[in-house]
Design a protein that fits this description.
The complex is a heterodimer of chains A (254) and B (291).
Chain A: E1 11-22, E2 25-36, E3 40-44, H1 51-58, E4 66-71, E5 74-75, H2 81-86, E6 89-91, H3 104-111, H4 123-139, H5 155-168, E7 173-177, H6 185-200, E8 204-208, H7 212-218, E9 221-226, E10 229-234, H8 236-240, H9 243-249
Chain B: H1 2-28, H2 36-53, H3 58-82, H4 85-105, H5 107-110, E1 122-124, E2 127-129, H6 132-155, H7 157-167, H8 169-174, H9 179-205, H10 215-228, H11 235-252, H12 261-279
Helix pairs in contact in B: 1-6, 1-9, 1-10, 1-11, 2-3, 2-4, 2-9, 3-4, 3-9, 6-7, 6-9, 7-9, 10-11, 11-12
The chains are: A alpha/beta (254), B mainly alpha (291).
Protein name (chain B): Branched-chain amino acid ABC transporter permease
Transmembrane segments (chain B): 12-39, 59-80, 135-154, 185-207, 219-246, 267-286
Subcellular location (chain B): Cell membrane
């Protein structure tokens, strides 16, 4: 991981002409955008617009057909997902993919353990890690559930555990796939608070979200995808007020 | 009677090592292998060959068995990296069938169908250990070592990584884990430690042949793990004890027709396992499933 601290707004990830097709259908079609340091970019668009595919391409989960993705100036074509993750790009999944057989504590702890074999750790590093996890559990409201298996959590708790895992890492870019969908209003507030605090702490976020309250509450920038194409990429007001985009989004075509 | 008990202790210890090492990959990494007897056999043949041709010292023949099994297990790790679940079971079944053929045919190393005779007793710091009572100390000591080592690994970050991979391979990779590397290491460790059971078996019986290392044995080891409790520390040992003691318990009841003991045993196993899976799918030691 590079030790230089990028300036606010400096592009961390640069995506150029990204392409991906599934059996002749263009899932991501010539998308070009930058993910800039300290900026929250929200991906919006109807279902099937290619938002999750876009995540899968930049995390290495899927191989792209064409285009270029650089992270901190380095081309990450063909790099394995775990290497991209270690370089500081981490993600959550829409279907969460928690480690269901493990406790809340183990889920969060394990998110910070990269090495294949256990390495000796100094007691101060161990204490620092424990404090970091404690803090994450408190902020996500999971402190009382630390010994509960992920499988046995309620829906909102599972969503927050998915967030807690990424919060405990030192990732610089978070790719969040519908982290707030299905949450109640109180949970929304907690979620927005977490996100604002971590963004203020230097994290860069790209988030897929449908809920307009969240979109408005958190976005510095909105990128609008439809049928794999990037139709708009700009400040929230101009994108949300575009009548053409609203028509596509709220689906009165056909 | 004493010799009988010691004999039973030795067999239980040896099968416990097999079950503990299979549980290591099955219960934590979710790698279901039907080829565990391959490494049992390889450990037995390798340690026998080394004991006869190089040295019967436990510090030579046993490590040689571990190294050989660890190396061959890479053939099993290879499919484990590519495929999951039932596909891997099929791949391991293939390795098991292939190995039995090799063990039956490679006369220079395995003695073919006839097996290896006159394996010298194992030498522990100048002591030849062969009496069942003495050997029981050795076999239980090795079991304790294997349990301590696997338990320490399972409770470390390595064990959490295995369980993370079992629960969601893609999420594990997304949190920086080198999934193929971790799986490979787990398979190599499992096979290397299973070879210790083979080495104990060979030096204890002083005679081995391919019949001990067939698919039946692999299935038996898997049954021991499932009955005892997959993913638990004590489960595999409890399972081994029950499955090995059961035959003698059945033959103890004199009113049962002694000529039918074999089939009676099969019926009890089959029925017991079916009922267990219905009422306690986590095994005897395993915890009840979550919601």
């Amino acid at each position: 991981m590079s030790s230089t601290t990028p300036q606010l707004g400096e592009p961390l990830m640069q995506i150029r002409n990204l392409d991906k097709s599934f059996g002749g259908v263009k899932a991501v079609d010539n998308v070009t955008m930058d993910l800039r340091a300290g900026i929250v970019t929200t991906l919006v668009g109807p279902n099937g617009a290619g938002k999750t595919t876009f995540f899968n391409l930049i995390t290495g989960n899927l191989a792209r057909d064409g285009g270029e993705v650089t992270w901190l100036g380095r081309d990450i074509a063909g790099i394995k997902p775990h290497r991209i993750a270690r370089a500081g790009v981490m993600r959550t999944y829409q279907d969460l993919r928690l480690f269901d057989g493990m406790t809340v504590w183990e889920n969060v702890l394990n998110a910070t353990e990269y090495g294949a074999l256990p390495l000796p750790m100094s007691s101060s590093a161990r204490a620092e890690r424990r404090d970091r996890i404690e803090r994450v559990l408190e902020r996500t409201g999971l402190a009382d559930k630390r010994d509960t298996r992920a499988l046995d959590l309620a829906y909102a708790e599972r969503k927050f555990l998915s967030m807690a895992r990424i919060m405990a890492t030192r990732a610089r870019l978070w790719l969040l796939d519908e982290p707030a969908s299905g949450l109640d209003p109180n949970s929304y507030e907690r979620f927005l608070t977490i996100l604002r605090e971590d963004v203020a702490g230097g994290v860069t976020v790209c988030i897929i979200e449908h809920n307009l309250d969240i979109v408005i509450g958190i976005s510095d920038r909105i990128a609008f995808l439809d049928r794999g194409k990037l139709l708009a990429d700009g400040d929230p007001q101009s994108v949300l007020n575009d009548p053409e985009l609203a028509r596509i989004y709220f689906g009165d075509r056909e | 009677m004493e010799a009988y008990i010691y004999n039973l202790v030795n067999l239980i210890a040896i099968y416990s090592i097999l079950a503990v090492t299979l549980n290591f990959i099955m219960g934590y990494a979710g790698i279901y292998s039907l080829a565990h007897a391959v490494f049992f056999g390889l450990g037995a043949y390798t340690s026998s060959w080394v004991a006869q041709n190089v040295s019967p010292s436990i510090f030579v023949s046993y490590p040689a068995a571990m190294v050989a099994a660890g190396a061959v297990s890479l053939f099993l790790a290879l499919p484990a990296l590519r495929v999951r679940g039932e596909y891997f079971v099929a791949a391991s079944l293939g390795l098991q069938v292939l190995s039995v053929t090799i063990y039956s045919e490679w006369k220079g190393f395995t003695g073919g169908i006839g097996g290896v005779l006159a394996i010298p007793p194992v030498d522990v710091l100048g002591w030849e250990v062969f009496r069942p009572g003495q050997f029981a100390i050795l076999s239980v000591a090795v079991l304790v070592l294997v349990v301590l080592l696997t338990t320490a690994l399972v409770r470390s970050s390595f064990g959490r990584n295995l369980r993370a991979i079992r629960d969601s391979e893609s999420a594990a990779a997304s949190f920086g884990k080198n999934v193929p590397m971790i799986k490979t290491i787990s398979v190599v460790i499992s096979a290397g430690l299973a070879a210790l059971a083979g080495a104990l078996y060979a030096s204890y019986l002083s005679f081995i042949n391919v019949e001990s290392f067939t698919l039946d044995t692999s299935v038996l080891i898997m049954a021991i793990v499932i009955i005892g409790g997959t993913g638990t520390v004590a489960g595999p040992i409890v399972g081994a004890a029950i499955l090995l003691i059961l035959p003698s318990v059945i033959s103890y009841f004199e009113f049962l027709p002694q000529t039918e003991i074999g089939s009676l045993q099969q019926i009890i196993y089959g029925l017991g396992m079916t009922l267990l899976m219905i009422f306690r799918p986590g095994g005897l030691v395993g915890r009840r499933p979550g919601r």
